[in-house]
Write a structure and sequence with these properties.
The structure is a homodimer. By secondary structure, chain A is α/β, with parallel strands linked by helices. Helices cover 41% and strands 18% of the residues of chain A. Chains A and B meet through helix 2, helix 4, helix 7, helix 9 and helix 10 of A and helix 2, helix 4, helix 7, helix 9 and helix 10 of B.
Chain lengths: 252, 252
Amino acid sequence: MGQVIAIANQKGGVGKTTTAINLGACMAAAGRRALLIDMDPQGNATSGVGIDRNSIEHSVYEALMGEVPLDEVILSTSVDRLDIAPSTRDLVGAELELVDADEREFRLRAALEPLRGVYGHIFIDCPPSLNLLTVNALTAADGVLVTLQCEYYALEGLSELLQTVSRVQEVLNPKLELQGVLLTMFQHTNLSSQVIEDVREHLGEKVYQTIIPRNITLAEAPSFGQPVIFYDLRSAGAKAYLALAREVVSRG
Amino acid sequence: MGQVIAIANQKGGVGKTTTAINLGACMAAAGRRALLIDMDPQGNATSGVGIDRNSIEHSVYEALMGEVPLDEVILSTSVDRLDIAPSTRDLVGAELELVDADEREFRLRAALEPLRGVYGHIFIDCPPSLNLLTVNALTAADGVLVTLQCEYYALEGLSELLQTVSRVQEVLNPKLELQGVLLTMFQHTNLSSQVIEDVREHLGEKVYQTIIPRNITLAEAPSFGQPVIFYDLRSAGAKAYLALAREVVSRG
Ligand SMILES: Nc1ncnc2c1ncn2[C@@H]1O[C@H](COP(=O)(O)OP(=O)(O)OP(=O)(O)O)[C@@H](O)[C@H]1O
Ligand SMILES: Nc1ncnc2c1ncn2[C@@H]1O[C@H](COP(=O)(O)OP(=O)(O)OP(=O)(O)O)[C@@H](O)[C@H]1O
Ligand SMILES: [Mg+2]
Ligand SMILES: [Mg+2]
């Protein structure tokens, strides 16, 4: 049975999409089938794996609305064994359109049910918000991976995020667990080191051993529509995500 | 009459809050009265100027819901002539609560009306989304300043943002103009230079001459609750925002 992990943080620009794409690619490179679900109307996960958003026939939005089954939305990518359920701009409307709908928090969970046996890993890329799209992702997931930039504002939002996770655990998805907190964009500064010390003190084992360094290849790779292990395997960014993939599997 | 500028981009982590706080502080340091409006439920602008979010009595949420006039929400900050209308977590609920409300896009504009003559500059910090909170900010504003990180995903989202701005101009706020596009977090890489070339080609004069470099003091200052010109005036970050403030005034 596939492991479903939501990658979340309401703070913007902290490496959610970069982590979803690169973890998915590492799992695929290791011979497992992996699926990305792009739950962000920005569609960065979709374009980051080289899909042209204007050419998409069906998207995650339609699967959430129940118009199309999720397996008809899924596209293959340039990476063997890595598929994606792409997102388009329509997804912006889902929040307001689902306000009065039945089971509004369970839409993604229901759509994913038939696919759980098909993929070894399913990674859900969340938007920078604690809105209905993120709640759908947390309700569908077995675990949540929180990406945490080693900076002040990112640390500040962590407690609210963890409160949302526990509310989802209590009411919508009792088996949801915090798989781990991933420190991203690390650079050797007092600020980064201070943040790491704080986080390890409060969350201990929950913090992955692997730390993702700030590394320009991670910002360059998406402009070529490629995950970093295919863009530059020898880079620090690629090595870090390969190490993270091993850790995620061992915690699985 | 005060100039009202919304600082917006649905892409997360591109320097919206950092720009709002530091522009506001530069105007205040130059002897003008400046007001920050924190329209992001994350409340980074609020904590970035040293306000304890747990001690706030009234917030922007109540002003939008019409429960309290905006001037009763406003707090002074540690910087002379710089005030803030703080945000709390409640703001997350505003989007759903205003769905069926009258004039839902005009709530901030109406709340700001009595204050326009009091401040020389009003900067609205937007959340990383094109939701009702951002639309309220664009409807209340005279101009929009788009912060653009010099990276691939940030560039990708620019056309959608500009489309939203023109829709707001057509339907809700005909006098809204694009004040300018600010290039942020610049570092000397091929990627950054490529993005700058693309943006200047498409938007020409609309791109501010001032470019904000990636500079660690800009990430450190908020952990002391201080704008960068008070944290380290000699830093590249402080110099860049002082230059930007002069440009914003000249375009005003
Ligand atoms: N470790 C890293 N080193 C350098 N750049 C990185 C790193 N991780 C991500 N980036 C770049 O930083 C920017 C933000 O990352 P990303 O878009 O993955 O964050 P996000 O949390 O998904 O953002 P959003 O909140 O907008 O969805 C992107 O331009 C990305 O290419
Ligand atoms: N020029 C810069 N150089 C280095 N760090 C910066 C710079 N500008 C902002 N930062 C830091 O980068 C992070 C993102 O900036 P900021 O929070 O201002 O972006 P934002 O667009 O407001 O994010 P969000 O989308 O979450 O609201 C913060 O930790 C901030 O301190
Ligand atoms: Mg993203
Ligand atoms: Mg912000």
